[in-house]
Amino acid sequence: YYFLEDRPGIYYHTHNVFIEALLEWGAVGALLFLGILSHFFIYAVRKLPQAFRVRNTSWIMAASITLLLTLNALTDGIYFLLFPSFFLVTAFAGFLAQSAGNARIEANKT
Q1: How far apart are CA 99 and CA 96, in angstroms?
Q2: Mean pLDDT of all residues in 71-94
Q3: Beta bridge partners of 11
Q4: How far is CA 60 from CA 37, 40, 52, 56, 86, in A?
Q5: Cα distance between residue 20 and residue 62, in whole Å
Q6: What is the CA radius of gyration of the chain?
Q7: pLDDT tens-place string over residues 25-62
Q8: Is 79 helix (H, G, I), strand (E, B) or coil?
Q9: Which of 7, 19, 26, 85 is most solvent-facing, going by the fewest CB within 10 Å?
């Protein structure tokens, strides 16, 4: 992302995270990125009713942050800014911690 000296205020940015991934990482990288987001989305849709039943607020907040940032990334370059990226990494850490906790509980049952 660079500014043109002869035209101040004009810069190149797609304002869409999927098109940006395609342009920067190519087809393979964009498919990998889309695959990871799709995996988390499908996992969240399946897990959401259970999270509401047991009132797992940390998981619900992590899912909400990820969903809202991803929806916002369709019209803005939100993933390229530091503060939203921090929230996204924190949300993914919440997902991973919850998954690891569930795996430990399942392992202890057997």
Answers
A1: 5
A2: 78
A3: 3
A4: 17, 13, 8, 6, 17
A5: 24
A6: 18
A7: 889 988 998 898 888 788 878 888 888 888 877 778 88
A8: helix
A9: 7
